[in-house]
Amino acid sequence: MCGIFAYLNCNVRRERSYILQVLFNGLRRLEYRGYDSAGVSIDSSSVSLPPLVFRQVGNIESLVKSVYQEVDATDLNLEESFVTHAGIAHTRWATHGEPAPRNSHPQSSGAGNDFLVVHNGVVTNYEVLKQTLIRHGFTFESDTDTEVIPKLAKYVFDKSNEESGDMTVTFSQVVLEVMRHLEGAYALIFKSRHYPNELIACKRGSPLLLGVKELTEESSKGSLFHDDKYPSQNGNPRELFLSSDANALVEHTRKVLVIEDGEVVHLKDGGVSILKFDGDKGKRGVLSRPASVQRALSVLEMEVEQINKGSYEHYMQKEIHEQPESLTTTMRGRLIRGGTCKAKTVLLGGLKDHLKTIRRSRRIVFIGCGTSYNAALAARPILEELSGIPVTMEIASDLLDRQGPIYREDTAVFVSQSGETADTLHALEYALQNGALCVGITNTVGSAIARNTHCGVHINAGAEIGVASTKAYTSQIVVMAMLALAIGGDAISNQARREAIIDCLFDLPNKVREVLKLDQEMKDLAKLLIAEQSLLMFGRGYNYATALEGSLKVKEVSLMHSEGILAGEMKHGPLALVDESLPIVVIATHDACFSKQQSVIQQLHARKGRLIVMCSRGDAAAVSLGGACRVIEVPQVEDCLQPVVNIVPLQLLAYHLTVLRGYNVDQPRNLAKSVTTE
Ligand code: UD1
Ligand code: BG6
Predict the structure, then answer these.
(1) What are the structural domains of the chain?
(2) Does 300 sit in the ligand 1 pocket, CB within 6 Å?
(3) Of 146, 252, 359, 361, which is least packed with CB atoms within 10 Å of its CB?
(4) 675: Cβ below 6 Å to ligand 2?
(5) How much is the pTM?
(6) Best of 369, 395, 424, 677 to mutate for ligand 2, by most ligand atoms within 8 A of CB?
(7) Residues pairing with 212 in the sheet
(8) What pLDDT digit, counting tens, does each position of 410-426 carry?
(9) Is 369 known to be catalytic?
């Protein structure tokens, strides 16, 4: 959803055109999250003039075009350079108010752009604040919740200067006071005409990172942090970046500070100072000065190549094809081959101290949304089998709607690629309040879910940019299968089964490599289905999840109606839909449900169903009904890992259908990668 980016060059001369390019490129790196409008703010030619704000509906390229059109019309000099300059930028996903320039960010305090704000998240008490500000003479132009923030900053600034009469209030004091009044989750960057070349970043709930790029040897030796007692004399050249997303930083620097909730990060004179917001609404903070904190920078473990498409046309295509590698990375260091007298085993570093508690729990509850929910559903049978503990499934929003029971004796497992999904996060808060042991399974180190769970496993699938999740899905299943093995422990009764699964995990990347060879076959199938209105997918057992996930992929990106159906429910309704024209995919790979699926195929065929059957290699004759059905043959693996193989042709089918139908495969209509609002 919304994305934040800011660029501050300190003691290094940069032309206005360069600054704009850095801001636009930052926004391009955030595009994948989903957005409907965008905006930037840069400085005018003189500090006595208000900062410039450009906002546009549509994609980044529309914003770029409109900025250059305005530049032409106003004779703004693109070659003018700044030794120090602070620019901010934003991609917006409409929540409060339609996509429109006036609702895009930066939002402003009013005509003189005294304060400008870019915001991710939601201010839940904005109505009350708005009414108060209106009573104080402010007028509002947008429908957003955000607009109260810059206006409140102006109110605080004007009032403190009126009271003290000496203009001594600092930028961070203004922001601290604003924060005292805000409720909800947010990440914010403030820019102000009164504090030129400074930026303030703060957050509560939503992610925000500071990236630091030293431009000389000298600057890397000097301290980045301002010290209260010894104000910085730092004249070394440095570039500072702020973003809600590591993807936008990694091409500039790997040195980052993960900003924590309640921190107010002030970028000024090439240095950084951090104040901790105490959140005490009772105290008036303008004149108080909270203690400053210093923190160590961390190093982003991300390669620039991860966020580029390489030789692929689309991110989704790249991410489908890199699954052999992402699965290898997911398992790296976690599978132990065993030796002559040692058993093969699994080691999940993040869980080893918690396994005893998990084994003692009364139930395991999987909680997630979308693809992450489907991955948990795929792993549920093996977890039940190996752990002997009942496993229940919860869609995060539904758990919250029902306020379903969660107990101290439960282990709640939160599955989320981004680690940011609002519904899943709220369900996590709920489970924490109810005293459950909370385990995270996420792809994003440092995400809210990774930080707020008691323990967990990073799936290490690498950055996933396509909105439709592909490689994260297969890595999530593998992690959950490893979780089942870890919880199941070393019971002798399970040993042969465990070893077979571990052997299969070692070979799984090769099997996925094999199944990827079906690419052309899936493209041909997509050509046949291009004009269809609807596509059903029937699965059961381990592959009920495959039917749900395959159909989710098709509907998300190719905008074709598709429904995943539990084959056991076929006779209880869906059979009514079957006719000669509706295409139906039946997943009938070889496992304990195979004969039941054969019978499903027979019944659908008897009603003249138009069948496409996915079967294990060698089973084509047994399922094709003498050539009446089209067959997709896939390599056979251990039953519990078969969903990892089976989903791949369906991902390819969804991808090709989308490209052939001419839709945007990486940013499907109306969808966002990280859904950070309820
Ligand atoms: C960790 C290191 C990895 C290193 C490996 C071997 C990190 C992020 N990972 O991986 O670089 O190669 O040791 O020494 O430094 N956690 C949660 N919730 C979540 C996800 C994770 O609380 O949703 C916690 C885990 O309980 C653990 C920590 O985060 O304490 C790291 O988890 P993970 O990366 O999965 O651990 P390792 O595989 O041991
Ligand atoms: C969104 C995405 O709806 O959130 C889906 O578009 C995703 O692809 C879902 O599955 C859940 O996201 P996450 O990050 O919690 O796994």
Answers:
(1) 3-305 (3.60.20.10), 309-516 (3.40.50.10490), 517-665 (3.40.50.10490)
(2) no
(3) 359
(4) yes
(5) 0.83
(6) 369
(7) 240
(8) 999 999 999 999 999 99
(9) no
